[in-house]
Specification:
By secondary structure, the chain is an alpha+beta fold. The protein has one helix and six strands; from the N terminus they run E-E-H-E-E-E-E. It has one domain: Thiol Ester Dehydrase, Chain A (Roll). The longest helix is centred in the middle third of the chain and has 24 residues. The structure holds ligand 3VV. InterPro entries: HotDog_dom_sf, THEM4/THEM5_acyl-CoA_thioest, Thioestr_dom.
Length: 149
Protein backbone atom coordinates (compact mmCIF):
# COMPACT_ATOMS: atom_id res chain seq x y z
CA UNK A 1 0.00 0.00 0.00
CA UNK A 2 1.33 3.46 -0.84
CA UNK A 3 2.05 5.99 1.91
CA UNK A 4 -0.75 8.41 2.82
CA UNK A 5 -0.52 11.96 1.49
CA UNK A 6 1.70 14.27 3.56
CA UNK A 7 -1.36 16.30 4.59
CA UNK A 8 -3.10 13.16 5.84
CA UNK A 9 -0.21 12.72 8.28
CA UNK A 10 -0.50 16.21 9.82
CA UNK A 11 -1.50 16.07 13.49
CA UNK A 12 -5.24 16.81 13.91
CA UNK A 13 -4.66 20.16 15.63
CA UNK A 14 -2.72 21.38 12.57
CA UNK A 15 -4.95 20.01 9.81
CA UNK A 16 -7.35 22.96 9.30
CA UNK A 17 -5.64 24.85 6.48
CA UNK A 18 -8.02 26.10 3.77
CA UNK A 19 -5.63 24.89 1.07
CA UNK A 20 -4.56 21.52 2.38
CA UNK A 21 -6.09 20.71 5.75
CA UNK A 22 -7.98 17.44 5.66
CA UNK A 23 -10.20 18.73 8.49
CA UNK A 24 -11.30 21.93 6.71
CA UNK A 25 -14.89 21.30 5.59
CA UNK A 26 -14.74 23.57 2.52
CA UNK A 27 -11.03 23.66 1.70
CA UNK A 28 -9.16 22.37 -1.34
CA UNK A 29 -7.77 19.27 0.41
CA UNK A 30 -4.56 19.29 -1.62
CA UNK A 31 -2.64 16.02 -1.44
CA UNK A 32 1.13 15.74 -1.85
CA UNK A 33 3.31 12.66 -2.29
CA UNK A 34 6.91 11.65 -2.89
CA UNK A 35 7.92 10.89 -6.46
CA UNK A 36 11.52 9.76 -6.05
CA UNK A 37 13.52 12.71 -4.72
CA UNK A 38 10.82 15.16 -5.83
CA UNK A 39 7.29 15.65 -4.57
CA UNK A 40 4.11 15.90 -6.58
CA UNK A 41 0.58 17.25 -6.12
CA UNK A 42 -2.17 17.07 -8.74
CA UNK A 43 -5.17 19.39 -8.76
CA UNK A 44 -7.85 20.35 -11.27
CA UNK A 45 -9.17 23.86 -10.58
CA UNK A 46 -12.89 24.54 -10.79
CA UNK A 47 -14.05 27.44 -13.03
CA UNK A 48 -15.10 29.39 -9.94
CA UNK A 49 -11.39 30.20 -9.51
CA UNK A 50 -11.27 32.04 -12.83
CA UNK A 51 -8.76 34.89 -13.10
CA UNK A 52 -8.80 37.91 -15.37
CA UNK A 53 -10.53 36.15 -18.23
CA UNK A 54 -12.46 32.93 -18.82
CA UNK A 55 -10.52 29.70 -18.98
CA UNK A 56 -7.65 30.76 -16.75
CA UNK A 57 -6.84 30.43 -13.10
CA UNK A 58 -6.43 33.42 -10.80
CA UNK A 59 -2.98 34.06 -9.41
CA UNK A 60 -3.89 33.73 -5.76
CA UNK A 61 -4.91 30.14 -6.32
CA UNK A 62 -1.63 29.44 -8.09
CA UNK A 63 0.21 30.91 -5.11
CA UNK A 64 -1.87 28.70 -2.80
CA UNK A 65 -0.89 25.59 -4.71
CA UNK A 66 2.79 26.52 -4.44
CA UNK A 67 2.38 27.47 -0.77
CA UNK A 68 0.57 24.35 0.42
CA UNK A 69 2.55 21.87 -1.66
CA UNK A 70 5.70 23.63 -0.46
CA UNK A 71 4.65 23.26 3.17
CA UNK A 72 3.90 19.58 2.67
CA UNK A 73 7.20 19.02 0.90
CA UNK A 74 9.13 20.75 3.70
CA UNK A 75 7.38 18.66 6.34
CA UNK A 76 7.98 15.39 4.49
CA UNK A 77 11.62 16.19 3.75
CA UNK A 78 12.38 17.08 7.37
CA UNK A 79 10.60 13.94 8.58
CA UNK A 80 12.50 11.78 6.08
CA UNK A 81 15.84 13.30 7.10
CA UNK A 82 15.22 12.98 10.85
CA UNK A 83 13.44 9.61 10.72
CA UNK A 84 10.48 11.12 12.58
CA UNK A 85 6.74 11.49 11.89
CA UNK A 86 5.58 14.44 9.82
CA UNK A 87 5.34 17.71 11.76
CA UNK A 88 3.80 21.05 10.81
CA UNK A 89 5.54 23.87 8.98
CA UNK A 90 4.30 27.40 8.30
CA UNK A 91 5.19 29.75 5.48
CA UNK A 92 7.82 32.38 6.30
CA UNK A 93 8.30 33.46 2.67
CA UNK A 94 6.51 32.78 -0.62
CA UNK A 95 7.79 33.92 -4.03
CA UNK A 96 5.92 33.20 -7.27
CA UNK A 97 6.85 33.88 -10.90
CA UNK A 98 3.92 33.65 -13.31
CA UNK A 99 5.35 32.47 -16.62
CA UNK A 100 2.32 31.52 -18.70
CA UNK A 101 -1.47 31.62 -18.24
CA UNK A 102 -2.65 28.64 -16.17
CA UNK A 103 -5.77 26.90 -17.47
CA UNK A 104 -8.76 25.79 -15.42
CA UNK A 105 -10.52 22.49 -16.02
CA UNK A 106 -7.08 20.97 -16.68
CA UNK A 107 -5.18 18.80 -14.25
CA UNK A 108 -2.22 20.76 -12.90
CA UNK A 109 0.92 19.11 -11.64
CA UNK A 110 2.87 20.89 -8.93
CA UNK A 111 6.34 19.51 -8.33
CA UNK A 112 8.61 20.30 -5.40
CA UNK A 113 12.35 20.01 -4.92
CA UNK A 114 14.10 20.57 -1.60
CA UNK A 115 16.87 23.14 -1.83
CA UNK A 116 18.00 23.28 1.80
CA UNK A 117 17.19 21.86 5.22
CA UNK A 118 18.76 23.84 8.06
CA UNK A 119 17.42 23.30 11.56
CA UNK A 120 13.72 24.22 11.54
CA UNK A 121 14.00 25.95 8.16
CA UNK A 122 13.39 24.21 4.82
CA UNK A 123 13.62 25.93 1.41
CA UNK A 124 11.70 24.37 -1.48
CA UNK A 125 11.60 25.18 -5.21
CA UNK A 126 8.30 24.50 -6.97
CA UNK A 127 6.97 24.33 -10.51
CA UNK A 128 3.35 24.34 -11.72
CA UNK A 129 2.79 22.45 -14.99
CA UNK A 130 -0.33 22.27 -17.15
CA UNK A 131 -0.25 19.67 -19.93
CA UNK A 132 3.53 19.91 -20.13
CA UNK A 133 3.70 23.73 -20.08
CA UNK A 134 5.49 25.44 -17.21
CA UNK A 135 2.96 28.00 -16.00
CA UNK A 136 4.57 29.19 -12.76
CA UNK A 137 7.59 28.65 -10.58
CA UNK A 138 8.06 29.49 -6.93
CA UNK A 139 10.32 29.32 -3.93
CA UNK A 140 9.12 29.01 -0.36
CA UNK A 141 10.85 29.28 3.00
CA UNK A 142 9.05 27.05 5.47
CA UNK A 143 9.67 27.01 9.22
CA UNK A 144 8.77 24.13 11.51
CA UNK A 145 6.53 25.17 14.39
CA UNK A 146 8.65 25.32 17.55
CA UNK A 147 6.32 23.08 19.56
CA UNK A 148 6.61 20.42 16.82
CA UNK A 149 10.41 20.42 16.76
C1 LIG B 1 -0.58 25.45 10.47
C2 LIG B 1 -1.13 25.30 11.82
C3 LIG B 1 -0.80 26.49 12.69
C4 LIG B 1 -1.17 26.25 14.11
C5 LIG B 1 -0.67 27.35 14.99
C6 LIG B 1 -0.48 26.91 16.41
C7 LIG B 1 0.27 27.97 17.20
C8 LIG B 1 1.65 28.16 16.62
C9 LIG B 1 2.27 29.46 16.98
C10 LIG B 1 2.82 30.28 16.09
C11 LIG B 1 2.83 30.08 14.64
C12 LIG B 1 1.67 30.78 14.02
C13 LIG B 1 1.69 30.64 12.54
C14 LIG B 1 0.27 30.57 12.04
C15 LIG B 1 0.29 30.29 10.58
C16 LIG B 1 -1.00 29.77 10.10
C17 LIG B 1 -0.76 28.88 8.89
C18 LIG B 1 -0.53 29.68 7.69
O1 LIG B 1 -1.41 30.34 7.21
S1 LIG B 1 1.03 29.69 7.00
C19 LIG B 1 0.98 31.18 5.98
C20 LIG B 1 1.15 32.41 6.79
N1 LIG B 1 2.35 32.32 7.58
C21 LIG B 1 2.37 32.85 8.79
O2 LIG B 1 1.40 33.39 9.28
C22 LIG B 1 3.70 32.78 9.53
C23 LIG B 1 3.95 34.03 10.37
N2 LIG B 1 5.34 34.03 10.82
C24 LIG B 1 5.73 33.43 11.95
O3 LIG B 1 4.94 32.90 12.72
C25 LIG B 1 7.21 33.41 12.21
O4 LIG B 1 7.86 34.46 11.53
C26 LIG B 1 7.89 32.04 11.77
C27 LIG B 1 7.26 30.87 12.59
C28 LIG B 1 7.72 31.77 10.28
C29 LIG B 1 9.40 32.10 12.07
O5 LIG B 1 9.60 32.60 13.35
P1 LIG B 1 10.51 31.83 14.41
O6 LIG B 1 10.77 32.79 15.54
O7 LIG B 1 9.93 30.51 14.76
O8 LIG B 1 11.86 31.48 13.63
P2 LIG B 1 13.02 32.45 13.11
O9 LIG B 1 14.21 32.24 13.99
O10 LIG B 1 12.53 33.84 12.87
O11 LIG B 1 13.32 31.83 11.65
C30 LIG B 1 13.81 30.50 11.49
C31 LIG B 1 14.62 30.49 10.22
O12 LIG B 1 13.78 30.91 9.11
C32 LIG B 1 14.34 32.09 8.48
N3 LIG B 1 13.26 33.00 8.09
C33 LIG B 1 12.25 33.43 8.84
N4 LIG B 1 11.46 34.26 8.16
C34 LIG B 1 11.99 34.34 6.92
C35 LIG B 1 11.62 35.03 5.74
N5 LIG B 1 10.51 35.80 5.71
N6 LIG B 1 12.39 34.89 4.65
C36 LIG B 1 13.49 34.10 4.66
N7 LIG B 1 13.90 33.40 5.77
C37 LIG B 1 13.15 33.53 6.86
C38 LIG B 1 15.22 32.71 9.56
O13 LIG B 1 16.23 33.52 9.01
C39 LIG B 1 15.78 31.46 10.26
O14 LIG B 1 16.77 30.94 9.42
P3 LIG B 1 18.25 30.60 9.98
O15 LIG B 1 18.07 29.52 11.01
O16 LIG B 1 18.77 31.86 10.59
O17 LIG B 1 19.03 30.14 8.78
Amino acid sequence: MSEPAFQDQYPDDYAHCYGCGRLHAEGHHLKSYWDGEETVCRYTPDPKYTGGFPGFLYGGMIASLIDCHGAGTAAAAKARQDGKPISRFVTASLKVDYLAPTPINTELEIRGKVVEIKGRKVIVDLVVFAAGTTCATGTVVMVQLKEQN
